């Protein structure tokens, strides 16, 4: 099974210098009652929201945000960051 969070980190580590991961931050919040909580996670790279994920657990929300973030970074960030 693929791990989007790991794939995102591997992509950032593969960039020249290997330190691009320090530019990635995660913002999260949860809402709703305890029995029906929804999690929202945003991946932020160098101050830009690059991925947003929602899910019934923090892990699933982060995985969803990672998929979007990796797609965005592959398309919009030049090699060598």
UniProtKB/TrEMBL annotation:
It holds the Pfam family dsrm. Residues 1-31 are annotated as: Disordered. Keywords: RNA-binding. It comes from the Eukaryota. The keyword Chloroplast does not apply. Residues 3-75 form the DRBM domain. PROSITE patterns: DS_RBD. This is DRBM domain-containing protein. It comes from Russula ochroleuca.
């Amino acid at each position: 099974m693929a791990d989007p969070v790991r794939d995102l980190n591997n992509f950032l580590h593969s960039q020249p210098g290997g330190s691009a991961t320090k530019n990635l931050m995660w913002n999260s919040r949860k809402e709703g009652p305890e029995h029906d909580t929804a999690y929202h996670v945003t991946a932020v790279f160098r101050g830009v929201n690059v991925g947003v994920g929602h899910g019934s657990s923090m892990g699933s929300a982060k995985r969803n945000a990672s998929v979007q973030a990796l797609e965005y970074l592959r398309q919009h960030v030049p090699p060598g960051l």
